[in-house]
Amino acid sequence: MEEVLKEVLKEIKPEEEEQKNLKKTSEKLVEKAKEVSSDFEISVEPKLVGSAARGTWLSGERDIDLFLMFPKDAPQEKLEKIGLEIGKKVSEGKAREQYAEHPYVNTNIDGFDVDIVPCYDIDDPTNLRSSVDRSPHHQEYIKGWLTPERAEQVLLLKKFLKGIGAYGAELKVHGFSGYLCELLITHFGPFQELIKSVSEWGPNKVINLESKRDQEELQDLFPNQPLIFVDPVDPGRNVAASVSKENYATFIRAAQDFMREPKKEFFFPNKPPTSSQELEDLIDSRGTEIFMISLDIPFDLVLDIVYPQLRKTKKTLIKRLEEADFRVLRSGIWAEENKALILLELKVPKLPTVKKHIGPPLGIDARPFIQKYINSEEALAGPFVNEDGRLVFELKRDRDEASQVLQKTLELRKGFGKHIEKSIDAEGYEIIEGKKVVAKAEEVNAEEFLGDYLSKCLPWYR
């Protein structure tokens, strides 16, 4: 195991030139922010936070988080207005306004993806004005114990989680955040010790570094969460709240397999198939019918807003299909920039025209049931009594093709995410079926998403 970890660390640890470039750009950003902030009558302190500031970033990552710390009594309107103005001036004309809990600026400086985020400079992280106010406190907590050796162990953990597809607290992934990775190494020690412990975890795990509350109390406080890691900075928060059951279980399975057979594929898994021919062959081999709904999203939204709305929309589409007796085998969603896809795999694309409609059992008045259908144009047969003693009509389906159900549901747009509904109003939608989904995936650079869906497999087995 040690040899594998040494080899991996050589590949993932930033080289000296990378570190110099990051430091140079980070210092430039802070100085520029200080200079711009001095033009305003309110005191604003720029502060670097996140993995780039802590030295726990992986080679090749080019992300910088610059926080603008406002006085805790500053009005929110002023924080948002001045925060955006400072962000835009620091961005040298390349600013993109983004919206999460409140507006912030995203930009690209010297090839680095930079988020410039206004927050409040609070003394007590348990008494927040916005959720991002914790980040500077996380920064100070982690820096208090972090050494270069521990930072290397964090890198190994991050890369392991990336390799198995469970890294990232964003709502696209529902995985492990960078801060959670740092805390896990804090508690369990070196990567090897952590993985050994994780391999023995059960359906739920509670980790509490500094509070005296017992496990039962914490599970009541954070219900239905497989992993609970109490934030040492804010004991009322579960750092692992974003981790889904799927990613929690994947981490445990990966740890168990890695303990049995340590190999680099956990950190550097093989890519899924992405060529047109491979994807089309995979579709043919499944013997199902695949539908893809393609959407243009004409709003500048962060993916943390888009993905929950896509999931809500997908859930509604599946519900309508199943109400129409179509069986959805599996589904998926994808979004990037202003494009989004919903993938739905059905056992069959078309059902028989006739459907069975079961009436009341004995002991319940059947007259309303019979009167409703006896002279209906929907009725193809009935009423008759089946082998269970129930009255039955055989009716004509309203829609016998899945594409008709999807089209009707998309036209109604009820139960969809708010911005998905608005996007369809503004830009429409496209339903793609069968092997034609390959061309659409290639058009929006989603081949890897489609390949991963069609050849779904734990990454280290691929």
TrEMBL record:
- Give the encoding gene's name: cca
What reactions does this protein catalyze?
a tRNA precursor + 2 CTP + ATP = a tRNA with a 3' CCA end + 3 diphosphate; a tRNA with a 3' CCA end + 2 CTP + ATP = a tRNA with a 3' CCACCA end + 3 diphosphate
- Give the molecular function GO annotations: ATP binding; CCA tRNA nucleotidyltransferase activity; CCACCA tRNA nucleotidyltransferase activity; magnesium ion binding; tRNA binding
Task: Please list the residue ranges annotated as the CCA-adding enzyme C-terminal domain.
Answer: 286-434
Q: Which SUPFAM superfamilies has this protein been placed in?
A: Nucleotidyltransferase, PAP/Archaeal CCA-adding enzyme, C-terminal domain, PAP/OAS1 substrate-binding domain
Q: Where are the transmembrane segments?
A: none
Please report which protein family the annotation says this sequence is part of. Belongs to the tRNA nucleotidyltransferase/poly(A) polymerase family. Archaeal CCA-adding enzyme subfamily.
List the protein's name: CCA-adding enzyme
Top-level taxon of the source organism: Archaea
GO biological process annotations for this chain's record?
Answer: RNA repair; tRNA 3'-terminal CCA addition
* Stretches assigned to coiled coil: 5-35
| Species whose genome carries this gene | candidate division MSBL1 archaeon SCGC-AAA382F02
What Pfam families does its record include?
A: CAA_C (PF21133), NTP_transf_2 (PF01909), tRNA_NucTransf2 (PF09249)
